[in-house]
Structures are given as structure tokens and as C-alpha cells.
Amino acid sequence: MEEESADTADAAVGRALLGYGPALSTAPVPADQLQDRVEAAWQSWQTAGDRFTKAADTLPGLVADVEHALRAARTGTDPTERRAVLRASADLYCLLRSYLRRTGRVDLATLAADRAMRAAEDADDPLRIAAAQWNLGHVLLAAGQPAEAEELALRAAEQIATARMPEVERVAMGGALQLVAVVGAARRRQWWEARERLTRYAAPAARVVPDVSNIGWTVFGPTNIALHALSIEMEAGETGEALHTADAIDTSGLPSLEREFTFGLEVAACHSQRRDDAAALLALLGLEVTAPEDLARTPLARQLVLTVMRRGRAMHARQAEQLAVRIGLV
């Protein structure tokens, strides 16, 4: 019954995105209120252990209200309100991209990323245009198109270098786009290219952007650079170097639980690659406490649990089986 409810909740977000929600005949919600609600939804998405449940409850109504406000703004006479609604819309659709990608709807995530781009361009907002391009790059990565993601990110990074915007925003978004290119190179198994781009282009930008700034909701900063260095070594099979890198990373100051979860998951993957099932299980159990819904939904996490069940010593296999039951894997 719980699984059916979760499926229904996820579907409601998709229906809202496609315009299947109830018609709204009331007055549109003011842009400042929409922006507050969108920012609260982003905050919940990046910090709550039950973020999927909360997003499924919040997003359908928020999408309906934003779309209603957009329709009203298009025919309205207040250009300031129209631009503010477009900004809230761009922020919301970037959030939807993240949610939909992680619920397995890459098709709808692509649609959300495109809507974010259109809204950001209509608002003529350089920061949101860069954030939308960053989100589109992640959609391309999820769709198995790393070369296209890399090309888009590098082109966007060139564009933002001359954009009229505060220096810290320009540097942060340029660095975040470079990280998309880093991931693209790693997905193409170009490990040295990924390492060089990380150290030559992304890392210098992170030196002037604090972790807590979270500009464009990208979590760009020094710790995210270290996390990408760990990812490269883990994916390259250099588990010793990856774990050495992990030892120096402190994720406690990050404004994103998701990045903290990814860090723990990749550490678990490194232990699994080294056939240290006890350490892998310990990391997975820690992730269950931190972000149980992410653990249940992430394919790599589920694979690692199954590996411990199949390969671990009897005691560890039993604990992994109990974990698998709790996350709905068996």
C-alpha cells in the first residue's frame, strides 16, 4: 500500500507539469509569495531526509499556482510582477528537474529543464539562465549523453564569463558548469581530462565561493570540488586514492543533504570495490539514518545492498537482508 501511494504521489507531480491539474479561476498568487514557497521547497529538497515525500506533497500545488500566475502575468500590465513570476518559475522548474530525474522520469526532467531555460531567458536573468543551463547539462548526463552535456556546459561557462552580474555569482556558476564538464569527461572515461579540468578550472573558482553560498542551488564550493575528485577516482577504479581523498572531506558544512548522501554512497562503493563488505554495510546503514528515501531510490545503493547480501559473511548478509526489507528492495 505504501508503494502504491508513493507511485501515485510521483505521478501527481508529472500530471501537474503536463497541465493535468485542476483549473484555477481564483486570483493568481503574488510573485513574492510564490518565490518564498519555491525557496522553501528547494530548502526542503536539499535538506530533508524525507525529501521525496515532502516534494510529492508540495510540488503539484506549487506548479499549478506558478503556471496560473504565469498565464496572468503574460496578459498583465505590470512588467516588474511579470519578471518576478518568471524568476520564480525558473527556480521551480530547476527543482522539478532534480526531483523528476531522481524519480526516474528523465523525459519529464528534460521538459522541466527546458521550461526553466525559457522562463530564465524571458526574465532576462543571467544567474537563472546559467542555473537552467547547469540543470540541462545534468539532464543530458542522466540521459547518457556526456559529450553533449560537456559541450553545453563549456559553452555556457564561456557565456557567463562576460555576463553582467555580481562577481561571486558569475564565478560560482562558471565553476558549477565546469563541474558538469568534469562529470561528462569522467563518464566518457577520460579520467585525466576530468582531473585536469577539475584542478585547472573548477577548483580555482571554488577558492572564492564559500560552501554555504549555494548559488543557483548548485552547492558549488570547495567541498563540492573534493567530492568530484572522489567521484573521479571511484569511477576510475582507483579506490585507494578515492578513500584517501574521502578521509580529508568534511560534509557537515554543506547546505545539501543530497551531496552528503552521495559522498557516503561513493565511500560505500569504494569499500565494495575492495570487497570490504563490512565497511560497505556500515556506510549503508549510516546512509539509512541520514537519508532513508534516497537510499531506497538510488540504483547504486540498492546494488550495493544486494552485493553484501550475496557476498558478505553470514552476519553481514543478514544485516544487509534486513536493510533490504526496510528499503523495499526484497
Question: Overview of this structure, please?
Answer:
This protein has 330 residues and is mainly α. Among the domains are: 1-124, no CATH class; 125-220, no CATH class. It is 77% helix and 0% strand. α1 packs parallel to α3 (51-75), α9 packs antiparallel against α10 (222-235) and α12 (257-273) runs antiparallel to α13. It starts with a helix and ends with a helix. Mean pLDDT is 92; it is low at 1-7. InterPro entries: TPR-like_helical_dom_sf. It comes from Streptomyces chartreusis NRRL 3882. This is ATP-dependent transcriptional regulator.
Flag low-confidence runs: 1-7
N-to-C span? 15 Å
Give the strand content.
under 5%
What does the largest sheet look like?
none
Q: What count of helical segments does DSSP give?
A: 16
The helix/strand series, from N terminus to C terminus, equals: HHHHHHHHHHHHHHHH
What would you report as the Rg, rounded to the nearest angstrom? 20 Å
Q: Provide the residue-averaged pLDDT.
A: 92
Number of strands: 0
Protein name: ATP-dependent transcriptional regulator
Organism: Streptomyces chartreusis NRRL 3882
